[in-house]
Write a structure and sequence with these properties.
Elements (H helix, E strand, L loop, with lengths): L1 H8 L11 H5 L1 H12 L10 H15 L5 E5 L5 H8 L3 E6 L2 H11 L4 E4 L10 E6 L9 H14 E11 L2 H4 L6 E5 L1 H4 L7 E9 L4 E10 L2 E10 L3 H10 L3 E2 L3 E2 L13 E6 L1
Parallel strand pairs: 1-2, 1-4, 2-3, 4-5
Antiparallel strand pairs: 5-12, 6-7, 7-8, 8-9, 10-12, 11-12
The protein binds S-adenosylmethionine.
S-adenosylmethionine (SAM) binds next to helix 2, helix 5 and strand 2.
Length: 273
């Protein structure tokens, strides 16, 4: 117990042990995530549904998706995929969560192809358009990001397009270092039965990065989950894309597709291979 708590309370080096899969693969957490995704007005797991329609709308109009292969990385339950397919794209969704994929296949987008895959490790299908939506790029370490961008570049056909969105550094200014401990922390999000949940948030201001470290202690099991978020400026993300061989258009407001006005609004980049 001492070792566990000592590890939990020691500030780790930035992105030490970053592993996006640990959070999403747990079946109970995946079911909670699906429920959050499907609440139309909720913004935790995905955007409110009206914003999803608006964002998918400008992407579809701008890229003219008719007849194009589109790969949605981290597609979740297929909420964007459904709009892209309706706009004429031949959609493939990749995600770690079988529970989300099952919803995508059966309910959200039966015409799409959905595969359980880790986009950091598994091969990506050849495609004309790739999307990575809801700030998922911010959950990656710079090394993971570089690796993913190179893979996406390799999977895109000549003239292909990569669309991704991110949370800007102004949002980091609202974060605080704090801790929390509660019985069934986050209303049962972490396990079906009883558990004690601890959260400690560490900030790395020089990198606009936050780590939420959770320790979930159930009667017969305990686990730690780290969620990293690096808030990125359009310039930093553009540079990372350029390093992988992309040419990026100026930032747009992620939801409306209009030129990005700065501040705390999420932005999107449309990058060409
Ligand atoms: C914040 S949700 C967003 C889902 C969807 N893009 C949306 O906006 O509705 C992130 C999704 O990415 C998936 N994911 C995270 N890391 C992944 C990885 N390395 N490979 C594949 N999927 C991943 C999760 O399972 C989850 O469904």
């Amino acid at each position: 117990m001492f070792d566990t708590l000592e590890f939990f309370t020691k500030r780790p080096g930035i992105f030490d042990g970053a592993d996006t899969a640990a959070l999403w693969a747990d079946p109970h957490v995946a079911r909670q995530m699906l429920a959050l995704h499907l609440e139309p007005g909720h913004g935790i797991a995905s955007r409110p549904h009206a914003e999803i329609a608006e964002m998918a709308g400008w992407i579809a109009d701008d890229l003219d998706l008719r007849g194009k292969r589109l790969t949605d990385l981290g597609c979740g339950p297929g909420l964007y995929a459904a709009h892209f397919a309706a706009a004429g794209a031949d959609v493939t969704g990749l995600d770690l969560s079988e529970i989300a994929l099952d919803h995508a296949r059966r309910v959200a987008c039966p015409v799409g192809t959905f595969r359980c895959a880790n986009y950091l490790d598994d091969p990506l299908p050849g495609t004309d358009v790739a999307t990575l939506i809801y700030g998922d790029v911010c959950a990656l370490s710079p090394a993971q990001r570089g690796r993913l961008f190179a893979k996406v570049r390799g999977a895109l056909a000549p003239g292909g397009t990569f669309v991704l969105d991110a949370f800007p550094p102004a949002q980091f200014e609202t974060r605080e270092e704090d801790s929390e401990v509660a019985l069934r922390l986050m209303d049962g999000f972490w396990a079906a039965g009883d558990y004690v949940g601890l959260r400690r948030t560490y900030l790395y201001p020089e990198h606009s990065t936050a780590l939420d470290r959770y320790l979930i202690v159930e009667p017969h099991r305990q686990r730690q989950v780290d969620t990293w978020l690096q808030y990125l400026s359009p310039e930093a993300l553009t540079q990372a894309l350029e390093a992988a061989g992309f040419r990026s258009e100026p930032a747009r407001d992620a939801v409306s597709g209009q030129p990005w006005a700065g501040g705390g609004r999420p932005f999107a980049l449309v990058a060409h291979a």
